[in-house]
Amino acid sequence: xxxxxxMQIKKVTAFPLRYxxxxxxxxxxxxxxxxxxxxxxxxxxxxxxxxxxxxxLAVKVLIEQGIGRVLLGRDPLENHALVLAMKESCxxxxxxxxANFAISALDIALWDLKARxxxxxxxxxxxxxxxxxxxxGSGGFTSYSVQQIQEQFAGWIDQGIKKxxxxxGANPSADVFRVxxxxxAIGGDVELFVDANGAYTRKQALEFAENFAAYDVRWFEEPxxxxxxxxxxxxxxxxxxxxxxxxxxxxxxxxxxxRMLEAQAVDVLQADATRCSATGFLKAAALAxxxxxxxxxxxxxxxxxxxxxxxxxxxxxxxxxxxxxIEHMLFDQVLEPVNGCLYPDRSRPGLGIELKRSDAVKYAA
Length: 365
Ligand SMILES: [Mg+2]
Hints:
Layout: E1 9-21, E2 24-38, E3 43-49, H1 53-65, H2 79-89, H3 97-117, H4 122-126, E4 133-138, H5 146-158, E5 163-167, H6 172-186, E6 191-195, H7 202-213, E7 217-221, H8 229-238, E8 244-247, H9 254-262, E9 268-271, H10 273-290, E10 295-297, H11 301-309, E11 314-320, H12 321-330, E12 331-332, E13 341-342, E14 354-355, H13 357-361
Helix pairs in contact: 1-3, 2-3, 3-10, 5-6, 7-8, 9-10
């Protein structure tokens, strides 16, 4: 028996949006919002980064005319059954890639909807283990000058953030110079992370691990390709003490995370609910916990703040420059760091954020 016996999912809608990154004027980027709606007008919101226009179009079609249609008429409280139904609906073309972006956006929207139906913050609905999660400032793009990186990091440090991350790997000959400049600016009390996005070969990554250690780099993300599990394992074994090897942001299901953990490829597992769904993020947390490996959330701070508070194994959340900007462009009530942590708003149901409709319209793709 359900206390909302008469309630059904009536409508699913996708809103592809595009925006410009201030330091990348040539290119637009794309994010797709998913809305789930019950027959009595309650709504939940989710999102995925679709990045390119053709991907945004594909995700919209999948949400409104494909995968999302299996939700219509269903009970909005049965999240696990709903995500299984969505995955089964695309068995022929596979539940990865574009399909998984659509599923993830819808799954997040379904959790937001359920929490709003029950008038609970999502973290509370999921059974929170803590009231806040630490964040690390993330940006330091390879297109930035050292001075731009230093200014960006100073802003986060002023907000009380104690860990900051920069990108490396696009121009290896400049990486040690850039890392040295960043470390000189942040000083000894703030931890420096680097993310190579898989750009280095194994031998290069080993050499850079030694070079970065001279500047007290504590986190080396994707030193080699995330698909090179042996290479990641080698880096984990041979990188200097105090330097964590991290990967996992591209994981789309629990099988991916299991393979990475069983290969003992990472010191810290990463997961992204906008790629692996909120339900998948919680599964990644359970797997990480069983392997005694900390879990770090990749971008989407307003969503992951709730999920991380419900995941005891979560260690921190990526406060990604670009995604923070999108959240402020599109939503009201976006969380701000307090002493370097995000505290989900316990006075607001669901994810606690509200779409700024008139502003969002300006970004319609
Ligand atoms: Mg990364």
